[in-house]
């Protein structure tokens, strides 16, 4: 079985959970053990996030993972102002920072500062490797995590709605951009603090979540119908 599968990941699942779910279905279809089946993806999503995962099934497609992971991505994000989170998302320890209420102009000006090529420090709770270990594992162990800034590109950052304390944005970004870090940086500019409350990936390159299937809808009988090459 070879091809690509667009999946709409639900909140609470890791990207690896989705890969394992599909891998078991493919293994059953091919009469193999799951460990002997090749299934990968083109870019992880945090467990709290929802949206598009492009799954690659079979050796001919999993070898393209590095190539496809470099595609630009689009996210719909809701930022919570006035608080910060230890992980940059709802799963961390949330702390109140400020009761300042920025006006619409201040919010628009803050967003404008992050359009184009910027330097960004990825979150400590990320899958980046530091001396061979994942940053999030070091952070969970209470160890200091030092990650160097990297250049990323924000092709579009549009404010779609603002009703304090929630700020909604659409972001078209280059591969390697962390929306959690972007939200925190916006909070710093506004001097309110911020974290990512809701995150949904709507596209990867030309692939759209509109054409994706929900994870639990995939089964042995219909999987071939959802795949494409």
Quick synopsis:
By secondary structure, this protein is of the alpha+beta class.
Describe this structure in words.
It is a single chain. With 229 residues, the protein is α+β, with helices and mostly antiparallel strands. It has two domains: 3-70 and 206-226, Pseudouridine synthase, CATH 3.30.2350.10; 73-204, Pseudouridine synthase (2-Layer Sandwich). It has seven helices and 14 strands. The chain has helices at 15-30, 59-62, 65-68, 104-112, 135-140, 179-190, 223-226; strands at residues 3-9, 39-41, 50-57, 73-81, 83-85, 94-96, 116-120, 129-130, 133-134, 150-163, 166-173, 194-204, 207-208, 213-214. Strands 1, 2, 3, 4, 7, 10, 11, 12, 13 and 14 form a ten-stranded mixed sheet that branches. It is globular and about 60 Å long. 36% of the residues are buried. The model has no long low-confidence stretch (mean pLDDT 92).
The end-to-end distance, rounded to whole angstroms, is: 11 Å
Judged by helices, strands and strand pairing, the structural class is alpha+beta
**Unreliable stretches covering 5 or more consecutive residues:** none
Tell me the β content: 25-35%
Question: Can you give the mean pLDDT?
Answer: 92
**Secondary-structure element pattern, one letter each:** EHEEHHEEEHEEEHEEHEEEH
- Count of helix runs: 7
What is the third-level CATH name, the topology of the largest domain? Answer: Pseudouridine synthase
CATH superfamily of the largest domain: Pseudouridine synthase
Helical residue percent?
A: 10-25%
Number of strands: 14
Mind describing the biggest β-sheet? 10 strands, mixed
Instruction: Please write the CATH class name of the largest domain.
Output: Alpha Beta
Give the CA-based shape: globular
* CATH architecture term of the largest domain: 2-Layer Sandwich
Rg result: 19 Å
Tell me the number of structural domains: 2
């Amino acid at each position: 079985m070879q091809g690509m599968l667009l999946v709409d990941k639900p909140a609470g699942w890791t990207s690896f959970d989705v890969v394992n779910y599909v891998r078991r279905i493919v293994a059953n279809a091919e009469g193999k053990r799951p460990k002997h089946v090749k299934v990968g993806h083109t870019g992880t999503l945090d467990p709290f996030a929802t949206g598009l995962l492009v799954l690659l099934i079979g050796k001919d497609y999993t070898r393209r993972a590095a190539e496809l992971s470099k595609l630009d991505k689009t996210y719909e994000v809701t930022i919570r102002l006035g608080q910060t989170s230890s992980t940059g998302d709802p799963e961390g320890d949330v702390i109140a920072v400020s009761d300042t209420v920025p006006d619409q102009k201040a919010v628009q000006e803050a967003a404008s500062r992050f359009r184009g090529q910027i330097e960004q420090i990825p979150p400590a709770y990320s899958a980046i490797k530091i001396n061979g270990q994942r940053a999030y594992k070091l952070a969970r162990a209470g160890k200091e995590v030092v990650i160097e800034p990297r250049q990323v590109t924000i092709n579009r950052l549009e404010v779609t709605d603002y009703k304090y304390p929630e700020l909604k944005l659409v972001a078209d970004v280059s591969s390697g951009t962390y929306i959690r870090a972007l939200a925190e940086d916006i909070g710093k500019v506004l001097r309110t603090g911020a974290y990512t409350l809701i995150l949904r990936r709507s596209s990867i390159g030309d692939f759209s979540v509109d054409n994706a299937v929900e994870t639990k809808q995939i089964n042995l009988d219909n999987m071939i119908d959802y795949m494409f090459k």
